[in-house]
């Protein structure tokens, strides 16, 4: 293996697929079976997800997290509506306008969210102002929150419940971008149900790709009076987005494998542990500043510029961010994964210290 | 293997992936590599396609044929424009409105096309009428044709050239839906270049899934003054459609495998041969009517109703179509694939005869 | 007045506004009043339309017929749906793609309609085929018909009722493009209710501009269980389309004036009478062919080419159409209006004969 | 006249049309003339606007400011792009999502703008961050600024030039929402050219309705290499939006009247003077706080709650806004117009003082 293949901390999407997923794909590759989701593997998804989430659910597998988020929101928000989210939300800043495309031009409005978390207290005045504008402002019809957040933190189940309650009180439905849901659950040591529908989440984008799939995410509707009418429209929306795989068995097989016997959460637990190992190392470094809590598999650090250069010169890959004014150094992000080994973390730390 | 797994003639998308594709996916599954198409496999696509098509090309891999067609057209047609296609075109009748979605509401206008082929003579009057309406009618800005057609026939390279010339003369660009391009090439015994850019095609939806991939299609721009400005917008359009795989190596690996050493065309040649075998058998059947030439891997037949019932009762899967008025019997379609064996065809024929 | 101002038979939209409408606009021009439809004139619309149509209605005034049709359909059809209409429908051929734009890419599918009228018998097979395609074809969710039709004919109330019944039976709602509704009513000698909601129409685009307004159309919802949920979304859709006048009193005043004391129908009756006068004259002309019945204020005629040239050279304005193959001469259209005088018709006829 | 008709300070769009506009409409009401903008009045617009703005222009009249802004932006920004504007911009907060609708889902991103004015220094880092995100963030392709601003202030011509230069340097085009452009020009005592194209504006939404029209705005392209390709698409975009009046003479007549002999600027000068009269009165009031400079015809004031109640009880109409935390009282807005008389202002002040 080339040397650089273990030095990429840019994202958890630079990883390969985990062996159990590859095995499941290979096993699915047999015979002619009905297309467009009528195969046995696809038909088993609702039950498998229902078991894991202890709920009645309707599940729609898709290829990318952008598709999962955008298609979910398109069922929750009319074209003339708008979505309340946090300013740093992936849907708002990193998805190339896909949510607006799938929602047919509906608007995303970002709330300030230090550390990636919205404050439940900020919802009522925002919702009231929106209402008071009448026809002049697109009405908020959904709230979207990200678990774990974009800054590597997590919401407590209580905070999610408070946000959801406020949203439901004002007639909004609630979406969770769970691209790193497994990492949040591993950190919180709660059940999948606790941090989702039991905390008021109506629709979940379940992230599989970063947790070890090749390319597999799922839109999960927790069935209730708010979500049932959405479910009926989903296959049409997915087809219309070009996201209905004809050979869907290969998509479903990945999700079934991830959810089998806790593979998914095991992968995420490992990723989190590697991130804590990295944090411990960085923490000891006197010139390194860690602006946020590390509650998933992402860590943000302000490094001296020289250190950043050094790492790049050694072939390390990671993202850099605009550093807040007045802070010396460079804000960077390292992401660990199921595929990260302790020795990969240690090598990175060694390069930093040297 | 379950008995029904060889009795599904509903489509070439009910098939598994072919072994070489599975092998390529497994080989791609190693190490952390850059995401979003910056991996080595993805970077090799332009060259591989360029070699096969003997042209300078820009290639964008996507998951589904619907996505390939819709994204291609979205780069060719402004939202206030329209596309001329044949009445039976997949984009017009079978893609759940995806082309209109990606084109942001641009219109598809279907020309009559007995046997799935548009008549070059029908273009000039249609284009002139459109022009004469001025601002009242969305201007035609692209022509889309399907090779092989929806009725199992193929266009000759000369007819494509005549259609393209007419389109170019009126300022349109030309798109080919090549979901079954390999089958057409195998039938025509021409080169990939002959039936595409040498016949005036500007943009191709290259079909991989039906030819043996798990889920892999490609949007191929044949570089010229008309297509170069489109190319620059494509990655943004693909991301915005939720179609940019983070682990794109797994998508690219499939296409590279298909194009390696003629695997693709070999698969299609086999599928066509199985379809001819089926045709020969059906032809001998006195009560069976074959309305179209069989020039790819699809055959349409009018069967007696009893026969249709019989096949269904034995577990055979195939599509039925509204039968033209006055014709006795039921119009059905059988599709063969790389995965169809001679004995599968023979068993079907035997069931029919008995 | 310039000579050409009476020689324009191109459309009924080349006309000025009728005096009563101008008077109403002038009278509305007093004082500061609430904007965006909260003025007294706008608040009187529902009652006035309700009286004329003998029904409970919700009325939304807009500027153009294209806006009325497109906004109405946008409330009736989801983005992933489609509309069944006649092939020659204005929404399908003359509105620059506006319906697709407002419906966010939903599709229009045109039924054959000799003389502009769909055949109720053609609906059930079309709707069943659509249903059988499942997710592959956008589902028909609305039927749109045009009264009077694009070819100058009208639907009988019975035919409309048969079309509506078939549509309702399949879960579609029914829209009427009534750009020339007054002309149809004047011809049919029925009540406004007879040819609309009593025949099953759910939503009407009421045409005011061609009947004497400056620029005023109305979207009229006949309130029932199908339409009530649509009504709630309309003001937002109108605002989002840039169609909510701040000084809406000036729009509402026009509609109130048209509906006062039968002005609207009187104008249309006059237009129809002028059209019959023209027909009588044309009919006598041996070289003139009249392909359609004349049941409103439009007449289509096949004229010898020399005659067409002659009229153009004298400054007459009218539309020409592609003439069906094999028919000698040129298909043209003449449209009369409330503003056409008998002597204008006679002068035209004289030019033709000479 | 009813008493309340002079007590409405809610907006300058509650006003009637000014007499010269009504006169122009009446004069346009003669004879049949070509529709869809081919009449003589419409054909005179480019010249009239060109004279006033001392530039070569292409002008497209529409009914509402929302339509003008949204259609202008739709020609400047591709569906996958985004617009940089100030946080309080009307397009971002008060147009019901129309810009996103017409831009087909392109995104608006708001910059902080105390007093409604963006800081030229904030552009470069914002534009660089956007660029650095590559395909993940929709690229900024237009800058939109509002003159006069939403908070009653104006940009100096120098600031506009600095903003435009920065935008042009990064490949953006520049749009001005000039719903109250006349008020800004009257305040700045500059020429229409100075604050628009001479300061780098490419496309202007020219506001007529608030300056005395019935319903008339104009999209004005200052012709240059950036704008010429946009111009060609406009009539199609306008038709597709349902905004192409068939009897366009009535729209054009209003604009011609406003631009004749400085009527427009005279109306705005009067409105500004009334606003200054109001400011002088409010300023003297010890309990009234005026947070912003008053540089057009809008004034914002923080009033004691009791005063607000009192005014409402007397029938005064005006908008209230969320008051910044910690500030005692209620933030309100008063808008004056060409129609406001000195005695109307004085009566309002008297009610306040009493």
UniProtKB/TrEMBL annotation, chains A, B, C, D:
<comment type="subunit">
    <text>Homotetramer.</text>
</comment>
<comment type="similarity">
    <text>Belongs to the threonine aldolase family.</text>
</comment>
<dbReference type="InterPro" id="IPR001597">
    <property type="entry name" value="ArAA_b-elim_lyase/Thr_aldolase"/>
</dbReference>
<dbReference type="InterPro" id="IPR015422">
    <property type="entry name" value="PyrdxlP-dep_Trfase_small"/>
</dbReference>
<feature type="domain" description="Aromatic amino acid beta-eliminating lyase/threonine aldolase">
    <location>
        <begin position="9"/>
        <end position="299"/>
    </location>
</feature>
<protein>
    <submittedName>
        <fullName>Low specificity L-threonine aldolase</fullName>
    </submittedName>
</protein>
<dbReference type="InterPro" id="IPR015424">
    <property type="entry name" value="PyrdxlP-dep_Trfase"/>
</dbReference>
<keyword id="KW-0663">Pyridoxal phosphate</keyword>
<dbReference type="Pfam" id="PF01212">
    <property type="entry name" value="Beta_elim_lyase"/>
</dbReference>
<dbReference type="InterPro" id="IPR015421">
    <property type="entry name" value="PyrdxlP-dep_Trfase_major"/>
</dbReference>
């Amino acid at each position: 293996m080339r040397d650089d293949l273990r030095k990429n901390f840019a994202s958890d999407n630079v990883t390969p697929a985990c062996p159990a997923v590859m095995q499941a794909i290979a096993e699915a590759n047999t015979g002619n079976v009905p297309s467009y989701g009528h195969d046995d593997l696809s038909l088993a998804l609702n039950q498998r997800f229902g078991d894991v989430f202890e709920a009645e659910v309707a599940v729609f597998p898709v290829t990318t997290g952008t598709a999962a988020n955008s298609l979910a929101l398109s069922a929750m928000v009319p074209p003339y509506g708008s979505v309340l989210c946090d300013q740093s939300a992936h849907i708002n800043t990193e998805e190339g306008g896909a949510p607006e495309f799938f929602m047919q031009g509906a608007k995303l409005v970002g709330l300030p969210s230090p550390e990636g978390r919205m404050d439940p207290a900020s919802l009522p005045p925002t919702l009231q102002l929106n209402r008071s504008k009448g026809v002049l402002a697109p009405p908020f019809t959904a709230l979207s929150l990200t678990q774990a957040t974009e800054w590597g933190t997590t919401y407590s189940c209580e905070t999610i419940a408070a946000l959801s309650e406020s949203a439901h009180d004002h007639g909004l439905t609630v979406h969770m971008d769970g691209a790193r849901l497994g990492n949040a659950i591993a950190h919180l040591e709660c059940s999948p149900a606790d941090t989702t529908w039991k905390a008021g989440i109506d629709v979940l984008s379940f992230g599989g790709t970063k947790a070890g799939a090749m390319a597999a995410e799922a839109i999960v509707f927790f069935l209730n009076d708010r979500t049932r009418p959405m479910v009926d429209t989903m296959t049409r929306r997915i087809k219309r987005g070009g996201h209905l795989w004809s050979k869907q068995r290969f998509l479903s097989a990945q999700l079934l494998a991830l959810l089998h016997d806790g593979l998914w959460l095991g992968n995420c637990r490992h990723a989190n542990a590697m991130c804590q190992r990295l944090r411990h190392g960085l923490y000891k470094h006197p010139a390194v500043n860690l602006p946020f809590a590390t509650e998933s598999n992402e860590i943000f650090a302000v490094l001296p510029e020289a250190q950043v250069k050094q790492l790049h010169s050694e072939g390390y890959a990671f993202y850099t961010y605009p550093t807040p004014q007045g802070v010396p150094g460079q804000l960077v992000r390292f992401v660990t994964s199921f595929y990260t080994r302790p020795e990969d973390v240690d090598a990175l730390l060694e390069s930093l210290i040297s």
